[in-house]
Amino acid sequence: MTVTGIITALIVGLVIGALGRLMVPGRQNIPIWLTMLIGVGAALLGTVIARAAGLADTSGVDWTELLLQVVLAAIGVAIVAGVGGRRGVSRY
């Protein structure tokens, strides 16, 4: 992978992670680097699933693939924020 490919993957991961984070209601106490990591993972997993399902072979923008990636990022952010939130101070 080239340097340009790595930078592109990080930018796409940041955008996908941010969109996924916006979909999750409430406040998530996770750092931006973890959001970006979740976004990169969701983007890769979403691409694999879309290609396996035959959804990535369209002309133009693959909206279904993008939506799948954002939903996977939202699920990832919700899981990580939920697990991290349990380690915090008890409300009671």
UniProtKB/TrEMBL annotation:
The keyword Cell membrane applies. Keywords: Cell membrane, Membrane, Transmembrane, Transmembrane helix. The chain crosses the membrane at residues 6-24, 31-54, 66-85. InterPro entries: Transgly_assoc. It is a multi-pass membrane protein. GO terms for cellular component: plasma membrane. The keyword Transmembrane applies. Its main location: membrane. It is found in: Cell membrane. Belongs to the UPF0410 family. This is Transglycosylase associated protein.
